[in-house]
Design a protein that fits this description.
alpha+beta
Length: 119
């Protein structure tokens, strides 16, 4: 969710440079300040989820390269899996065997563990 401060700053100082496949919009400062680089930022389409920034745009945001990514730079190879959001804190989050929310029971030890003993 974009804050009021971000919206005002974007309206006053931002120049839109592109949009990614998730609908996120990317901006940089209109005028180039002396003595530093232009600031760059993203306004997320839905909830603020940093993992929804494609690699090409991530590199642009962090000044890894100066060229603004084009539409073809974000296309994933056919073998690459699609985006999965960070599920931490949700019902779909991974819980290992023995987790308290998964019943709190784990498989008994197999006996193949040998603790370290000092000489």
């Amino acid at each position: 969710m974009t804050t009021l401060v971000t919206r005002v700053m974007t309206w006053l100082h931002g120049e839109r440079v592109g949009t990614d496949s998730f609908g996120n919009q990317y901006y940089h400062e209109r005028s180039k300040p002396s003595g530093r680089r232009r600031r760059r930022w993203v306004v997320y389409n839905r909830e603020d989820e940093a993992s929804r920034v494609p690699p090409a745009w991530h590199g642009w945001l962090h000044h890894t390269f100066d060229d603004i990514p084009d539409e073809n730079s974000g296309k994933a190879p056919a073998w690459q899996k699609g985006h999965v959001p960070n599920l931490t804190g949700t019902e779909q989050a991974y819980r290992p065997p023995g987790h308290t929310l998964e019943g709190g029971r784990r498989a008994p030890a197999t006996g193949d563990y040998e603790p370290w003993q000092p000489n």
